Amino acid sequence: MKALIWNKSGKIEIVDKKFPEITEPTDAIVKVTMSSICTSDLHIIHGCVPNAVPNTVLGHEFVGEVTSIGSEVKNISPGDRVSANCETFCGECFFCKLGYINNCTKGGWKLGCSIDGCQAEYVRVPFADTGLTKIPDNVSYSNALFAGDILSSGYFGAEMCEIKQNDTIAVIGCGPVGLCAMQCARLLGAGKIIALDIDDSRLRIAKENNLADITINPQVEDAEKIIFNITKYGADGVIEAAGTDETFTLAWTIARPNAVVAIVAMYENNQILPLPQMYGKNLIFKTGGVDAIHCKKLLEYISQGKLNTDLLISKEVPLNNIIEAYHEFEAKKEGMLKIAVTPWVYEK
Fold first, then answer.
1. Do 38 and 149 form a contact (C-beta atoms < 8 A)?
2. pTM of the full predicted structure?
3. Between β-strands 313-318 and 284-287, what pairing exists: parallel, antiparallel or unpaired?
4. How confident is the model at residue 333, as a pLDDT?
5. CB–CB of 170/227 below 8 Å?
6. What angle do CA 235, 239, 283 make, to 5 degrees?
7. What is the DSSP string of 301-313?
8. Short-list 298, 10, 290, CA closest to 160
9. Are strands 168-172 and 192-196 parallel, antiparallel or unpaired?
10. pLDDT tens, residue by residue, 337-347
11. C-alpha pair distances (Å), 5 with each of 44, 87, 93, 314
12. What pLDDT, on the 0 to 100 scale, is given for residue 296?
């Protein structure tokens, strides 16, 4: 089969690999019908993910059709349309039972990191009963593509903010995670959403899709002054989905005293908490890898029309063209959000 791998030099290439096989009774094999490129994949290529194993098939964000299952798999069957969770988790260990599946003692971020991922024709999914969720009949593959990662990350950020009815939530970064966080914050009761980004095209997407009430470009506007004029004391919650030194500082600066700052971005540099400046704000910082435990709920919200991630797909390309797609995705051309990767096209 065709698959995309990476190596230590930061090079990606399409190779021929053997079809994956069931190796554990809890495994499933999935035919990938659609996958996507994630910023986390770029972090791997750039050498910023210590657990990543070179020459591994990249990708962890996908949907597909189950083709075979191990003897202990109970919740899914061959032929089922499924959405994959970006996290591998057993569902039985100490952390899984608490709902912290990102910290599963037998799992974590495996697919596309330490074991072969989904940017291929087929993929082996460990702990398939927890790692795969059936897609509702009225939800298409493209509708469900982001449920297990990007949408889960946005929901995770909104959930960490402990949103109360009519809260004002500021979301830094209008990329895919930030846009999903806006939708989820509204769903959880936020009364006003403030979107911040230095890319005006992304701010327009947030505004035109009614995801944000107010948009701010901190590069040309005084974000702190505007937000304090709107809210008086600052945002009730801040979701940081950008991941730069500047946005980390902005996040705690625009938060009101006693607010939650929810950090869902992945940073490439260490960040410093300037505690003397923060003293008295009584801020709560929450951060970590996404605990994508709500995939079934999120797919139900999509089925009910309460969430919609279709706007995230900027273009579709076949697996044949995925290397060019990586370059486009990293370049972040105007309006570029996510690229959906469809199956390999064989010449007739």
1. yes
2. 0.94
3. unpaired
4. 77
5. yes
6. 60
7. HHHTTS---GGGE
8. 290
9. parallel
10. 999 999 999 98
11. 11, 19, 31, 23
12. 97
Question: Mean pLDDT in the chain?
Answer: 95
Between CA 180 and CA 337 the distance in angstroms is 12
Query: Any idea how long the chain is?
Result: 348
Q: What is the pLDDT of residues 8-60, one digit of tens each?
A: 888 999 999 999 999 999 999 999 999 999 989 998 999 888 899 999 999 99
pLDDT band of residue 332 (cuts 50, 70, 90) is confident
User: One-letter amino acid identity for 139?
Assistant: V
| Residue burial 159-183, b: 16+ Cβ < 10 Å; e: rest | bbbebeeebbbbbbbbbbbbbbbbb
CA distances from 155 to 241, 244, 294 (A): 12, 21, 8
CB 119 within 8 A of CB 319: yes
Q: Which residues contact 113 (CB under 8 A, 6 or more apart)?
A: 44, 49, 51, 52, 53, 56, 60
Give the pLDDT mean for 248-274.
94
Could you count the other beta carbons within 10 Å of the beta carbon of residue 280?
8
> Which domains can be identified in the chain, with CATH numbers?
2-149+292-342 (3.90.180.10), 153-287 (3.40.50.720)
Q: Could you please report the per-residue DSSP string of 117-170?
A: -SSBSEEEESSHHHHEEEPPTT--HHHHTTTTTHHHHHHHHHHHTT--TT-EEE
Amino acid type, 47: G
Residue-level pLDDT at 224: 96
Q: Which token pair is 2?
A: 């065709």
| Residue 245: closest CA among 282, 271, 216 | 271
- For residue 62, the Cα-to-chain-centroid distance in whole angstroms is 11
Q: In what order do the strands lie in the sheet containing 255-263? A: 214-216, 192-196, 168-172, 235-240, 255-263, 284-287
Element (H, E) at 217: none
Contact assessment for residue 58 and residue 326, using Cβ atoms and an 8 Å cutoff: no
